[in-house]
Amino acid sequence: MKHLKLTLALAASLVTGAANAEISDNVVRIGVLNDISGIFQDTNGMGSVEAARMAAEDFNGGAKGIKVEIVYADHQNKADVGNAIARKWLDIEGVDAIVDVPNSAVGLSINALLRDSRMTFLASSTASSDLTGKACSPNTIQWVNDAWATGNTTAAAMMSRGGKEWYFLTVDYALGKGIEAEAQKYIEGHGGKVLGSSKHPLGTSDFASFLLQAQSSKAQVIGLANAGGDTINAVKQAAEFGLQQSGQKLVAFLLFINDIHGMGIKVAQGLQLMEAFYWDMNDDTRAFAKRFAARAGMNGKMPSGNQAGVYASTLAYLNAVAATGSDNAKNVVPEMKKFKGKDKLFGDTTIRQDGRVVHPMYLFEVKKPEESKYPYDYYKLVSTIPADQAFRPLAEGGCELVK
């Protein structure tokens, strides 16, 4: 009888294993969830959808005839809206992975929902460091930036150039608060001072009062702990106030090439910013960018770091699906974490056990108008932060997945 029970248990285990190692519905569905109509529409939006489609096309079935579908939706920068979309994709529409998700509040909500489900979360635009810390999930892989990286590496780079005294303009939700907290911890831990901080709502159009406070603080560096349209508006109005001309340095923690294009290089000149990707870095990034710019609806626009992250994470996910024969996160995510090598868009890359994708980061300065030789030729490289220094050390994140 014991032998029979053991045999039945083994058979059941094999059946379960076979079921888990299959592609559900015979198609891999990837849902691009982002802001299509709001302040992140240029850095993400339909450009992220095209980047995911490019990854599916380049995957080309993984030499196994695997079918891939790309779907998309607008979370409107609302956690409840994003959560409802993700639940519908999970319970009804057979979506296997969610990618992109700018806005940390939305991303953290999706992360909690998908934990221990069969879906994979490719958080290529969610910047909260909690995704690889106290909220880490076996279903989540985080690409591009996070609050620890942007806060610490940007602060370190600016302090090494003499920026010891800071004032923050911070968007009043998880993203901004996380970046400011990480940067402040670094600044004060390395002999610097934070002279003040102004919090503003998401989607602020008038930064006059905040900028006046920053200007009157006499801080050497004004740190913009926000993103998208908020950063653009702040930089434009800072130029009107003549902040940089008066000797204060303006640094953006989370800004992209599309934002520079939107505000114009004349306004943005001299701005310091940290990026994980720049389209004009090397032959591989230029080749990808030119293909992206030629896509229908892109009208010659170069990809942001977030859009490059959608491409890289989608392709990495699909390659893991091909390797495992499964679109279940329990099989795919561990396979993704085996990767260590060179990513064409992000350089030397490792995917750690906490789900953090580690790659170099770069401090850029926006060129003067006369230094720009062709469209989107906006950045000059100031310094490179190696992959092993750019992100929070694995042992310090407090993620329970780390053995």
Automatic annotation (TrEMBL):
<feature type="domain" description="Leucine-binding protein">
    <location>
        <begin position="28"/>
        <end position="367"/>
    </location>
</feature>
<keyword id="KW-0813">Transport</keyword>
<keyword id="KW-0732">Signal</keyword>
<dbReference type="InterPro" id="IPR028082">
    <property type="entry name" value="Peripla_BP_I"/>
</dbReference>
<dbReference type="Pfam" id="PF13458">
    <property type="entry name" value="Peripla_BP_6"/>
</dbReference>
<dbReference type="InterPro" id="IPR051010">
    <property type="entry name" value="BCAA_transport"/>
</dbReference>
<comment type="similarity">
    <text>Belongs to the leucine-binding protein family.</text>
</comment>
<protein>
    <submittedName>
        <fullName>ABC transporter substrate-binding protein</fullName>
    </submittedName>
</protein>
<feature type="signal peptide">
    <location>
        <begin position="1"/>
        <end position="21"/>
    </location>
</feature>
<keyword id="KW-0029">Amino-acid transport</keyword>
<dbReference type="InterPro" id="IPR028081">
    <property type="entry name" value="Leu-bd"/>
</dbReference>
